[in-house]
Amino acid sequence: MSVRTAATLATILALVLPGASCVREQARPPAGVLVVSQEQQASWIRNFNPLTTAAAARWPTLAGIYEPLFVFNSVKSEYVPWLAVAHAWHEGNRVLRVTTRDGVLWSDGAPFTARDVAYTFNLLEEYPALDRRGVWGFLESVVATGENTVEFRFQRVFIPGFDELVGQPIVPEHIWREVPDPITFPNENPVATGPFTEVRAFRTQVFELGRNPRYWQEGRPRIEALRFPAYPGNDRANMALVFSEVDWAGNFVPAIDRVFVGRDPEHHRYWFPLTGSTIFLYANTTRAPFDDARVRKALSMAIDRELLVDIALYRYSRPADATALSDGYAAWRNAEIAAAGDWVRHDLARAATLLDEAGYRRGADGVRRLPDGSPWRPEILTVAGWSDWVRASQVIARGFGALGIEAAVRTYDFSAWFQRVQEGDFDLSLGWSFEGPTPYLFYRWLMASATVKPIGESSMGNWHRYASPAADSALAAFEQESALANQRRIADELQRIFVAEAPAIPLYPNPSWAEYNTSRFDGFPSREQPYADPSPNKFDRGECLLVLTSVTPR
Amino acid sequence: MRYIGQRLGFYLLAAWVALTLNFFLPRLMPGDPATALFARFRGRLNPEAMQALRETFGLTDASLLGQYWTYLRHAVRGDFGLSIAYFPSPVADVIGTALLWTIFLAGTAVVVSFVIGTLLGVAAAWWRRGWMDTWLPSILVFLGAFPYFWLAMLLLYVLGYSLGWFPLGHAYGDDLVPGLSVTFLADIVRHAALPIGTVVLVTLGGWMLSMRNTMIAVLGSDYVNLARAKGLSPSRVALRYAARNALLPSVTGFGMALGYVLGGSLLTEIVFSYPGQGYLLVQAVRNQDYPLMQGIFLVITLAVLGANLLVDILYLWLDPRTRESAS
Fold first, then answer.
1. Using alpha carbons only, what angle is made at residue B229 by residues B225 and B231, rounded to the nearest 5 degrees?
2. Are A465 and A286 in contact, with CB atoms under 8 Å apart?
3. Residue in A closest to B240 by C-alpha
4. What angle (nearest 5°) sits at the alpha carbon of residue B160, between those of residues B155 and B163?
5. Which residues in chain B have Cβ-Cβ distances shorter than 8 Å to A128?
6. Is the pLDDT of residue A9 over 60?
7. Contact A247, A521 (CB under 8 A)
8. CA nearest A417 in B: which residue?
C-alpha cells in the first residue's frame, strides 16, 4: 500500500519535473514586437467591431485599427488632422464641411474616400444602438459631396457637435454594406486604415496585431507588431510590468517610484499627466443646507487637499483649483479666475465664520446645528474597494469634524452607490466629472438646467442637481460660437460662474496612468517630450494613435 | 433502479429551482448592464451614449414574468443569448473558451489531492503513531491554514520569478500554437504544475485528516478484528475491509469538492492568469451581464448536481447497505 502511494507520488513528480528541471524561458518577445497591457481579461474574445459599445472590442480597435477624422491631443489641447485634413463652417454654422485625406488606402487595398465617412454616419442613423456619441441628436444629414468632401448638415447651430463627429472611427463601405447586422458583427478580420490591421495570431491568452502594409503615413508605424497577453486583474498586470514582461501599460501602480522605477531606474519610466477627469465631492443641492453656496464653500475650505492627495493618491495629483478644470483643459483655464477662487484653500477659521453667518452654529456639544435644532450629521458616500476614494472620504470627514460637522463615511458596493447617486439619494458623495476637448461638456453636466433631473429619476450626470441660469446662457452662447477667441471668452465666463456659485466641490484632477519600459522601445511621451498623453487608456478620441505611430524599436 | 429514478427526479426539481434563482437573483441587484458599462468609463463616455447602450443590449421594459418564460424556454434549448460584457459573443462561446481549462485545472487538482490525501490518511491510520501519523497531518494542516491567495502568490514569486523553475502564468507558452503535439501537451503540464501544486498543497491536509480519523474508528470495529483473526493479509484488511468503509464520508466530500470545482477556482486563475471561467464570473457580476451570469451559474449548478449523482452511484457500489434499502 505504501508502495502504491510512492508510485502515485512518482507519477506526479514525473509530470512536474520537466517544469522544474528546465531553466526559465526567456519571456522576451521577438524584436520589434511591443507588448501592451491595457485591458484586463482572463481570456480574449475575438471582436474588432469599432461601432458597437466601446468596451467589448479589443484595444486598440477604436484608435489603432480604425481611425477617426481628427485626433484630439489632450496634452496640447489641440486637434491633429488624421483621416481629415481640414474643416470649415458654412451657412451660418449650420453646415460643417470636412475635407478628407487623399492617398489613404484601406488595408485590403481599396481607396478610402469621403463616401466611407458618409456611409459610417448614415449607418449610425440606421442603427441608433451604434450611435454612442448621440450625433443624430443634432445632425440632419451627412452627404459625400465629392471624392474628398463630406457635408454634415445640422438641425440647429451646435458647434460642440464637432467634437463628437470627428472622434468617430470610420469603417469601409465596401465591407460593411455586406454585413447583415453591424451591431452583433464580431469583425474578426478587420479591414481598416489604422497602423495595425493584421491579426497575426489570436488565442485565448494572447493575440498579436501586425502592422498595416498600406499605412498612409510613410515609414510608419515603426513597431513591427503589438502583442497582448491576457492578465486578469491589476495585481498580475503590475507584476508583469515590474518584471519587464510588458512594454507599455495604463495601470494604477501604488508607490510607483519604489515598486516599478526602483527595479530598473534607467528603463522603467512613467508619466502621469493630470489630464483625467476631475474628482468632486458632490453636495446634493436639493437638500438643505447644501443648497446654500456659502455652505458649499465652507465645506470646501474645511478640506485639506494637500493632505488628501498625499494620503489618497500617493501624491500622483495636485489639489484642484476653483475652476475645477484638469490639465486636459490647460489651454482653457484662466489663471486669474482660478486664483480668485479662494474657497478651495484650506482655511478652517474662514469656513467657521461662513457657517456661523449662514446660521449653522455649534451646539453645546460642539456639533453644529441645523435650523430645526438637530445636530448636523451628513453622510459621505463612497465606493467599497475604491481605496483612493475611501481614503479621500476619510480625510474629508476629518476636516469636517474640525469644523463641528460630524460626517460619517458610508461605503457602498459599486452598483448600490451608483444607483443612489444617480437618483439623488445622498447628502454628499464622491464622483467623477466628464472629459472633453472643450469645457462645454464638463460645465454643462455640472450646472446646466437641462441636465437636472428630478430626485428619484436616474441621471447620467449633474447628480448634485444644480441649475445655474447664468451658466445656461453662457453654454447656449458657446453652442453658437465657432471662433476660438470668442469660445475662450465664453469659457472664461463659465469659469467665473463656477467660481462664484461653487455648484460642486472639486478635489483633484485624476492622473492619466501610463507606464513604459524603454529597454526595447523608445519615443514614448514623457515629461521631457510631452508630445501627447502617454496613456493607452486615451483611445476614445484617438489619442493613442499619436503614440502608436511615434514609438520606435531600439 | 427506483433509487436512481428517485434521485433523478429530485435533481430535476433542484435544477429548476436553480434556474429560477439564476434568473431572479442577478436582477435584484441595483442598476443595469448599461449603467454598469457607462460607469466603468468614469467620465470618458458622453452621457448621450446611454441610449445607444440600452438599444445595443436590448434592455426591454417587458414584464419580469414574461422575460422569465422566454428565459426558461431558451435555457431548455441551451440558448443563453449574447453576453453583455463580451458583446456580441454568444454566452456559450464565451464560456466555451474557459470551461475546459477550468475543468482540467481544478478537476485534476481535486482528484490528485483526494487520491494522495486519502492514501496518506490510510497509511497514517494503519501505521499509527509512526512519523507519518505524527508529523504529516500537522504540517499539512498548517499549510492549509494559510490564505490561499497569499500562499499562491508567494510560491509564484519564489519558484516562478526568483528561481525561474516554473512559467509565470497562462495555460501554455505565448509563442506556442495549440495542437496535438508532445511539446504542446508537455507545455500544458508544465504550466499547470504550479497552480495544481498549490491547490493540492492547501487541500491535502483536509483529505488526509478526515480519512485518517474515520479509518482509525473503523480499524477498532469488530469485523476488522474478525478479519485479522481469520488471518487475512494486512493489505487486504487495510484496503478491502477498513479503507473501503472509511472512504464513505470522504466520497461525499469528494463529490461536493468536484461540484465546487467550477465555482471555486477563481483565486488560482487570477494568481496564475489561467484562462478559466472563475474570472469570467467576476467580469459578469461586475458588468451586470445577466446572460453570462445565468450561463455560468447553470454550468456550476449542473456540475454540482452531476457530481452528487456520481456520488450517489458510487455509494451504491461502495456501501451494500444503500443497495439493500434502495431495492
1. 125
2. yes
3. A1
4. 100
5. 51-52, 55
6. no
7. yes
8. B30
